[in-house]
């Protein structure tokens, strides 16, 4: 059987890299997308290949549709049609709403929402043509519950819920599913940079008593990308150690 080809945006580091590496373990072809971390992306390619997959690193800023179109060309040239798109690229610019500039608002919405829009538009026909096409969006617990200093990020992540559910409806007749995961606080740069006091509070508020790991998110994404999830669509899967209980 032809290996699946998976595009993971923002996958030189963090959760995206964990997902790319997990796809490698399944023998997939992986497009490791990065914006500026070329070296880290090339390391991710090596890890994917060492675990039995194939991979290429492709530079593209997801806020620029022309760069995303070039990424599609590179993916097609290396592997042919794409089966799985994971919209993972993300940033945060945390500041209390009263002090938030329009630029801080725009830049976060641009990466999460315009980025998901561009990538999904560009890879839409691939997902439709794939035998078991999969769109997987990475949202966040913050999209559900909000968070101090994250009005921009919470709005973007809540937008991803509506985007996912609508795409699930529009893609369903094509046999393609669209789901999203909503991780709680996961041990990556985005969370490790928080003050120790804040991390301690997160651990205390989480029934399982710790931060999540990249592997724990990647495992769920690998399931959603696989044929094993064929009757699941439009879902938001929480991966949060019970934090919103
Ligand atoms: P991270 O900063 O390690 O990874 C984000 C990646 O996205 C980086 O590699 C970055 O370069 C890339 N990126 C940013 N802007 C981009 C652009 N314009 N074009 C292409 N790539 C771009 O952070 P992470 O924690 O691994 O986050 C990954 C995803 O998971 C994000 O969408 C984030 O919002 C989400 N998330 C993270 C957590 C967490 O606790 N870490 C929780 C919930 C959701």
TrEMBL record:
NCBIfam families attached to this UniProt entry: PRK07231.1 (NF005559), PRK12826.1-2 (NF009466)
One Gene Ontology biological process: monocarboxylic acid metabolic process
Protein's recorded name: 3-oxoacyl-(Acyl-carrier-protein) reductase
CDD domains: BKR_SDR_c
Taxonomy, superkingdom: Archaea
Pfam families xref list: adh_short_C2
Transcription regulation in keyword set: no
Protein family per UniProt: Belongs to the short-chain dehydrogenases/reductases (SDR) family.
Domain Ketoreductase: 4-189
Keyword NADP found: yes
Alphabetized GO MF terms: 3-oxoacyl-[acyl-carrier-protein] reductase (NADPH) activity
Keywords from the UniProt entry: NADP, Oxidoreductase
Enzyme Commission number(s): 1.1.1.100
UniProt-listed Gene3D superfamilies: NAD(P)-binding Rossmann-like Domain (3.40.50.720)
Main EC class the enzyme belongs to: oxidoreductase
InterPro entries per UniProt: KR_dom, NAD(P)-bd_dom_sf, Sc_DH/Rdtase_CS, SDR, SDR_fam
């Amino acid at each position: 059987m032809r290996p699946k080809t998976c595009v993971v945006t923002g996958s030189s580091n963090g959760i995206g890299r964990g997902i790319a590496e997990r796809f490698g373990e399944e023998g997939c072809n992986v497009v490791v997308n990065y914006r500026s971390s070329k070296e880290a992306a090339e390391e991710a390619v090596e890890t994917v290949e060492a675990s039995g997959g194939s991979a290429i690193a492709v530079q593209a800023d997801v806020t620029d549709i022309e760069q995303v179109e070039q990424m599609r060309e590179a993916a097609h040239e290396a592997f042919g049609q794409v089966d799985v798109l994971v919209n993972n690229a993300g940033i945060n610019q945390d500041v209390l709403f009263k002090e938030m500039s329009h630029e801080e608002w725009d830049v976060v919405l641009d990466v999460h929402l315009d980025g998901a829009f561009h990538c999904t538009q560009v890879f839409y026909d691939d997902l439709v043509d794939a035998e078991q096409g999969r769109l997987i969006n990475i949202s966040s617990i913050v999209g559900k519950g909000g968070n101090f200093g994250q009005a921009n990020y919470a709005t973007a992540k809540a937008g991803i819920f509506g985007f996912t559910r609508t795409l699930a409806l529009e893609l369903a007749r094509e046999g393609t599913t669209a789901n999203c995961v909503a991780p709680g606080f996961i041990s990556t740069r985005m969370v490790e940079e928080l003050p120790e006091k804040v991390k301690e509070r997160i651990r205390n508020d989480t029934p399982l008593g710790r931060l999540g790991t990249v592997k724990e998110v990647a495992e769920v994404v690998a399931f959603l990308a696989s044929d094993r999830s064929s009757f699941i669509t439009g879902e938001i899967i929480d991966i949060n150690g019970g934090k919103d209980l």
